[in-house]
Amino acid sequence: MSWRSPGKSGLQSLDRMARLLRGRANRYAWMGLGVALLAILAATLLSCQYEHGDYTLGGLLDVQQNNPALWALDLMPIAFLIWGQYIGSVMSYQAGALVLDETRELRDEANRLQYELSRQSVAGHATGLPNRHALAGAINTAIHRLDGKRSGGFAVLVLTTEHYHEIAQAHGEAAAAQYIGQLGERLQNVTGGGDLLAHFGHDDFGILVAQASDETTARHYASRLQLALDVPITVGRSAFSLRASIGIALYPAHGPDAETLLRHAETAKYAAVAARRDYLVYEPTLDDARTEASRLSAELHGALYNEGLGDDYQLQTPLRAGLPPRVRLLPYWEHPRRGRLGEADFLHLPDRVSLVHGLTTWLLREGLARLSAWRANGAPQLQLVLRLPDAAVRELGFEDLIQRMLHSHDLPGSALVLEIGERALALAGDAQRAQLAALRQAGLSLCLDGVGEPGASALTALYYPLDEYRFAPALISRAGTEPLVRDALRKLVELVRMLRLRIVYAGVDHEAERALIEQLGGDYAEGRAYRPALTPQAVERWLQAGMR
C-alpha cells in the first residue's frame, strides 16, 4: 500500500487559490490602468484644444509640461499598479490563512493514519488471527444482537507492549515474528469461547469480550491478561519481561458503533502508556490529551524537517579545580500556537521510531557540530551535555548512531556526556544496557537526570552503568527555603559521594541556592545564579573571552 500525505495537495490548493485571487486583483488593476491612461489622453486633448485651439504634437507636449493638474493625473497609472499589487498580496495572504485553517484537521488526521499504517502487519508477522477490520465487523454484529434489549453490553480492549522494536532491532525480523507469535498465544489462553482476539499489526492487539457487560468485569479481564503476561517470553536465548498497556471501552456507554469503540479504547490505551498504568477505562477527558499529543507529534515532524527547532546552551560551571568546562544543549521549538517550547515539552513526545530517530539525530548533529567548532577554536577540553529522548534509549540502536556521529566530527567519546531519565533506564532491556556499557567503554559519561523528582530513586547507580547524577531543579529550589528538604539534600549528597558519582546541580537560580550548593560541594552547577542560557553566538563570545 502506498501512502500519500495530503499536505502536498493542500499546498497545491493554497497556491491555486492564491494565484486565482492575485490574478483577479491584478486584472482589475490593469483595467484601472487603462481607464487612467484614457483619462490622461482625454484631459491632454481638451487642454490642448482650450489653450492652442487645435490638436498638434507641440501643443500636446506644451500642455503636459506646463499644466500641474496633468502632472497629478500622470501619477494615476503608477498608483493603480501599486494598489493592484498590494490588494493581490493581501488577498493571497487571506486565501492562504483560509486554506491552512480548513486543512489543519485533515493533516492531523493524515499523520495519525500514517502512524497506524506504519504499524500494520508485514510479511512474516502473520499470527493467523483476525485483523482490525474483522474485529470491527464482529463488534457491529454484537451491537445488532443487542439492539432492542434493555440490558446487556460488552467490552472492547486494545493492547500494546513495549518490546517489539527492541527485539526487531537487536535480533532481527524473525525474532520479532517469534515474539508476536508467543504474545498471541498468551492472549489466546485468556480469551473465552465467546471472545474474539484480533491482531492489528506489530504488537497491537484488540479483543472483543462478550461477557464483560460492566466496568468491573472489564477491569478483571484486563488484570487476567496482565497476569498471563507476567512470565517472560523467550526469544532465542534472551528472555523478555513483558509490560502491556490496555485501553478499555464499553458498549453502549462509550460508543454506538465499532469504530467509535475502537477509537475510544485506543485513546485509553495511549493514556495508559503515558501514565505507566496497566490499563485504563475510557473517559471523555482523555480525548483532549490524545488529540493534542497527536497534533504536536505531527507538528514536530514538520518542525524537525523544516528547520523549526533551535538550540541554546547552558553553561555548567565547575565547582572544583581540574574539571573540564561544559555546555548543556537546550533544544527549543518556536511553536506557532503555543510559543516557545522547551525540551520538557517535546523531547519525549514522539512515539514513532522514525520521528524518534530524526529528533535524536538532530540533537546529535546540531550539538556535535557546535562542539567540534568550539573545540577547534580554543576550547579543546570543552564537553557537550545532551539529554536523549526516553524513546531513543528504548527503541533505537543508539550506540552505533552516537559512535558514528562522534567519528563524523572527529570527536573523542570523552567529549560527550549523555543524560538519561530514570524512566528510560527502568524500561531498558539487556540490549540497551549492553549499548550503554559500550558507550562508557568508548569514553562517554552517562548521567542520570532528574534525581530528586517524585518517584526517582537515589540507588539507580547500583543497577545501571552511570557516572554522575543531575539533581532536579525543584529539589534545589525547595532546599533553598525548606529546612527538611535541605537536610535531605545533604544526606543525598553524602550517598552520591559514597556511590563515587559526580554531582551536577540544576536550576541554581538564586544566590541563596548558590551559597547552599557551594557549601555542600559537588562537581558542576548550572542556573541563572551562575549564568543564564546562551545562544550559540554568545557561547562563542564566552570562549573568546577566555571562558570568564
Number of helices: 20
Task: Output the strand order for the largest sheet.
Answer: 8-9-11-12-13-14-15-16
- Number of beta strands: 16
Q: What is the terminal-to-terminal distance?
A: 59 Å
Strand content: 15-25%
Helix content: 55-70%
Rg result? 33 Å
Looking at the chains present, what oligomeric state does this protein adopt? single chain
Low-confidence stretches at least 5 residues in length (pLDDT < 50)? Answer: 1-11, 118-125
Q: Quick one: biggest sheet?
A: 8 strands, mixed, barrel
Structural class: alpha/beta
| Overall pLDDT confidence | 81
Shape: flat
Overview of the molecule:
Helix content is 55%, strand content 16%. With 548 residues, it is α/β, with parallel strands linked by helices. Strands 8-9-11-12-13-14-15-16 form an 8-stranded mixed beta barrel, surrounded by 4 helices. The protein has a 5-stranded mixed sheet with strand order 2-3-1-6-7, sandwiched between helices. A hairpin with a 7-residue loop joins β8 and β9. α1 packs antiparallel against α4 (76-118), α9 packs across α10 (285-304) and α12 (353-376) packs parallel to α14 (398-408). It is flat.
